[in-house]
Design a protein that fits this description.
By secondary structure, the chain is mostly helical. It is built from seven helices and no strands.
Amino acid sequence: MTLPEASHWLREISTQLPEGAHDALLEADALIVTVAKTQGISVEPLLQHARGVVEILMTLHVDADPLVAALFSDIPPVMLPPEQLEPLFSVGMAEMVAGVRKLRVVDNYRLQRQSSDEKFTHFEGLRKLLLGMAEDVRVWC
């Protein structure tokens, strides 16, 4: 299955988008395609999942920033760091991307086996991580 072009995809969902989201999503989609091509990575798996997440978030009637952040959340930070996103979009959106990426660390914690002393350290680190992400509650949605 080939992914539809961003303009076609956005046309299909445009009636449900919040104000300002169309242009931001189009720009974000184009940036992902450009970055993936320069890195020699297939863009289809990245965008297929990200666009699906955007469509799910639309059912929650969120504003434009979480929708744009959803497109970037699966992109590895080394390919597209949040600092690079700030001037193009917004500080809030870049912080959401960073927050969602931090949530992935929680999954890595669950996969590690630990002694009881390590478990305390693990839970303390997890507590600090979750408190740090509490800046923007939309990261949890």
